[in-house]
């Protein structure tokens, strides 16, 4: 029997009707395959939140001003954000990264300084980053994950904070999947109908101003991305290389995943899609990746909160596989 057949056999022989644990069975199979074992375990769960400022945020595409990005980083450092609460609740380690926030933070041992620049340029008229900045952000993301692997962690989620980043994510999705931008744009932090129309117009203009940009993932990321998105892209690539279980959060995280997937499609085998965001493009993005998310709680926060609330489900998947009796061991008739 192949390992896949052995794991499936183990799942099927648990004391339950065939398939009765639904998606938990798929997750258990996936985690066992990632770890190449019939007895997987989840060690030192960790969520990394990458924060960065966006030049495009100054074009009226968000309901909130750009300063909220650095203000929320301070909130993360003080333990007051949703991701602080949910990681604490579920015993998940939290690491914060300044990927490129337009603010000079006091040195703080809880904040990794990976600042590429003080925010990206507005991609309405310029490239968001230089080629070097984009490469550096990807490399930093990889390096941060490689350091976390050394702690023994084998399950990792990524979150982001960046006012304006639903605009970046929407354009990445539109360019990389050849989907009209209108189908990729949502309300983000909650723009009103007029602002929503303006957001679409701005992003259409941005795309036509960069008509020369191909569908190459790095070129698209450099032109329309954010430092947190590029860093997350590198982080996904490194985490999959390390054979970790990857927890994927909402719309922006999925757009970063899409960039990484275009660079290495193998990473999908390591990815658990934690939730379906309320953000308009997310369902379409997930369906293009041909994946089903675990939860739909109408969340649209980011920060890795979808990963943090879904993590107990991964624990349940591993626990049933390791701890449930089989029909044979429990003396239960299987037909
Ligand atoms: O994760 C999501 O699906 C998600 C959906 C909508 C908004 N967000 C968060 O809101 C911010 C981006 O929204 P906006 O309107 O400024 O583009 C950014 O900080 C994200 O973390 C996140
Ligand atoms: C307050 C606030 C918190 C956030 N967390 C992630 N994105 C956010 C956007 C806003 C506006």
From TrEMBL:
GO terms for biological process: cobalamin biosynthetic process. PANTHER family: NICOTINATE-NUCLEOTIDE--DIMETHYLBENZIMIDAZOLE PHOSPHORIBOSYLTRANSFERASE. NCBIfam families: cobT_DBIPRT, PRK00105.1. This is Nicotinate-nucleotide--dimethylbenzimidazole phosphoribosyltransferase. The lineage of its organism: Bacteria, Pseudomonadati, Bacteroidota, Cytophagia, Cytophagales. One of its GO terms (molecular function) is nicotinate-nucleotide-dimethylbenzimidazole phosphoribosyltransferase activity. InterPro entries: Nict_dMeBzImd_PRibTrfase (IPR003200), Nict_dMeBzImd_PRibTrfase_bact (IPR017846), Nict_dMeBzImd_PRibTrfase_N (IPR023195), Nict_dMeBzImd_PRibTrfase_sf (IPR036087). Belongs to the CobT family. Its EC number is 2.4.2.21.
């Amino acid at each position: 029997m192949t390992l896949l057949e052995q794991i499936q056999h183990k799942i099927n022989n648990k004391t339950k009707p065939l398939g009765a644990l639904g998606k938990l069975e798929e997750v258990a199979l996936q985690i066992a395959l990632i770890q190449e074992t019939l007895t997987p375990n989840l060690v030192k769960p960790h969520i990394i939140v990458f924060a960065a400022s966006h030049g495009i945020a100054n074009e009226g595409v968000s309901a909130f001003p750009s300063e909220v990005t650095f203000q929320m980083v301070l909130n993360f450092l003080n333990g007051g954000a949703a991701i602080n609460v949910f990681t604490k609740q579920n015993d998940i380690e939290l690491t914060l990264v300044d990927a490129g926030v337009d603010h000079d933070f006091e040195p703080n041992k809880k904040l990794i300084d990976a600042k590429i620049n003080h925010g990206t340029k507005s991609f309405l008229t310029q490239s968001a980053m230089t080629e070097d900045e984009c490469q550096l952000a990807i490399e930093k993301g990889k390096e941060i994950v490689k350091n976390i692997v050394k702690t023994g962690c084998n399950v990792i989620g990524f979150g982001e904070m960046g006012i304006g980043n639903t605009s970046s994510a929407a354009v990445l999705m539109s360019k990389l999947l050849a989907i009209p931008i209108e189908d990729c744009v949502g309300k983000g932090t909650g723009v009103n109908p007029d602002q929503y129309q303006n957001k679409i117009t701005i992003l259409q203009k941005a795309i036509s101003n960069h008509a020369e940009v191909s569908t190459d993932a790095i070129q698209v990321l450099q032109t329309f991305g954010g430092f947190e998105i590029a860093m997350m892209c590198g982080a996904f690539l490194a985490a999959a290389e390390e054979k970790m279980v990857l927890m994927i959060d909402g719309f922006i995280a999925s757009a970063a995943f899409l960039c990484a997937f275009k660079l290495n499609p193998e990473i999908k085998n390591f990815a658990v899609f934690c939730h379906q965001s309320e953000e308009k493009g997310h369902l379409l993005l997930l369906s293009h990746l041909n994946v089903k998310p675990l939860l739909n709680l109408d969340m649209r926060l980011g920060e890795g909160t979808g990963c943090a609330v879904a993590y107990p489900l991964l624990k349940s998947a591993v626990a049933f596989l390791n701890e449930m009796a089989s029909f044979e061991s429990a003396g239960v008739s299987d037909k």
